[in-house]
Design a protein that fits this description.
By secondary structure, the chain is of the alpha/beta class. Helices cover 54% and strands 8% of the residues. The protein has a five-stranded parallel beta sheet with strand order 1-5-4-2-3, sandwiched between helices.
């Protein structure tokens, strides 16, 4: 009896010999492992499709976010363009107007400077002193002895023009003529102001000081009335020179004369009817040049000028306004 067990006989298949059972198990199990539940597709394809759907969803979300940001940027761009068109265009227009105004001012100043330079006389002309009406009367023989002494108006510069002066002053007392021609008085005077001018013309001979009317505008009205009468007497052969120590005062004189006489900007300048001065030496130099050319300077001195230069007193026509105590106190407060 042998120790080894007898070999187990192999089962005989009716169709023929069969392979061992261990060789059949892996082959039969492989389709079961690869097949998905309820589907004929492999599991790798399903995972790839799910991953693709996830990536596409994220891309769509990012696209929506980008489109929303792009829309907001376009709205902001349109708003910035509107702001630029509104604000920058308005500012540029304002700047252009200021530049144009400054250019016009420079052109006018240079033109006036060129004209003034052309009139500068390099050769000093000899001064010719014209005799006054008093000197002519004394040279003719003087008044008859024993005759009654005449009023200052009879011996003054305007003695022969007394009827015209009184007529014009009476006319100024009536209703104002707001549509009168330039260089004609467009405002009316009251009786005290007309009396002031009558005294200055007929009793002071157009040379002297008068009390201030209390304001610079009313003094400008007095000066405008005197200019209108002098225009009737001398035409364009005289020029008005205004002396005021500060630009603000000269501005008030300019506005007052412009309103009372219907003047424009072109009527104020070195070669026009009215010239404004801050310093007396420049005014005196201008008055000397006018007399050298045979013209007559008419000088108006502002009430704020506490001292009148002695050289101004030599000219035949000047009117200085003497301020009152209240007016001096007001000027001190403004300073």
């Amino acid at each position: 009896m042998s120790d080894s067990a007898p070999d187990t006989p192999l089962p005989i298949h009716p169709d023929g010999p069969q392979e061992p059972q261990e060789n059949l198990a892996p082959a039969e199990a492989e389709p079961l492992i690869q097949a998905g539940p309820g589907s004929g597709d492999p599991p790798e394809a399903g995972a790839a499709a799910a991953l693709l759907q996830l990536v596409l969803g994220e891309l769509q979300q990012k696209r929506q976010v980008l489109e929303q940001e792009l829309a907001e940027l376009e709205v902001r761009r349109d708003q910035v363009q509107r702001e630029i068109q509104s604000s920058f265009a308005g500012q540029s227009d304002g700047i252009a107007r200021r530049v144009k105004g400054f250019q016009d001012y420079l052109v006018g100043a240079l033109q006036e400077l060129a004209v003034a330079a052309e009139q500068v006389e390099l050769v000093v002309q000899p001064m010719v002193v014209q005799p006054s009406p008093l000197d002519l009367e004394q040279a003719a023989g003087g008044p008859v002895s024993g005759a009654p002494a005449q009023a200052p108006a009879a011996a003054g510069l305007f003695s022969q023009d007394e009827p015209l002066i009184r007529q014009r002053l009476e006319q100024f007392l009536g209703q104002p003529d707001f549509y009168a021609d330039p260089w004609q008085l467009r405002r009316s005077l009251d009786a005290p102001t007309a009396g002031l001018l009558e005294n200055w013309f007929l009793f002071q001979g157009g040379r002297g000081a008068q009390p201030s009317t209390g304001s610079r505008n009313r003094n400008a009205l007095v000066g405008a009335a005197a200019i209108a009468i002098l225009g009737d007497l001398y035409g364009e052969r005289f020029q008005t020179l205004v002396l005021a120590g500060q630009p603000e005062r000269l501005g008030e004189w300019r506005r007052g004369l412009q309103d009372c006489l219907g003047l424009g900007r072109e009527d104020f300048g070195p070669n026009s009817g009215i010239v404004l001065f801050e310093r007396p030496d420049a005014l005196i130099e201008r008055a000397d040049r006018l007399e050298e050319r045979g013209e007559l300077p008419f000088i108006l001195v502002d009430a704020a000028e506490q001292v009148v230069d002695v050289a101004i007193l030599q000219f035949p026509l000047w009117l200085a306004f003497a301020p009152g105590p209240s007016e001096l106190a007001l000027e001190d407060d403004l300073l």
